Amino acid sequence: MKKSLKYLVLVVMVVSVLSSSVFAMENTNKYISSCGAYIHKWGDGDISVEFHVVGTDIMDTIGAHRVTVYKMEGETINSGSDEVIATYWHETYPGLMITDDFFYSNSIRLQVAHGYRYYAVIVYYATLGDGGDDMAYTTKPVWA
Length: 144
Known about the structure:
Number of helices: 1
Number of strands: 8
Order of helices and strands: HEEEEEEEE
Helix content: 10-25%
Strand content: over 45%
CATH class: Mainly Beta
Distance between the termini: 45 Å
Number of domains: 1
Structural class: mainly beta
Largest sheet: 8 strands, antiparallel
């Protein structure tokens, strides 16, 4: 009985984390079932962008087409003056896309200036047969 209760609590916690609005975003995309991302602070000036995407089937390709990290200059995201710190493209950065799978997750770790807020915009991409689609996701900012 005690073991069953522990298992039930664990399942409820996992479902809660995976369905939270911070971690995942549901949509009506024909190729992408859900996606999510966040920035994690590791230390002074050391952050990682962690992301995941779930396809609607076993996809020909699935992952992040592009990951762009911004330094916030204003009080809100996309204030017009935010500085692009780094952009990673799947064509030149290994590990952003995979083939023949329905789920993909990865992270990018980078050094940034301490004392600023950073956020990322991830453009997910999935293909199946002759079709494909993308979807953008913006993380919440984090202090580095």
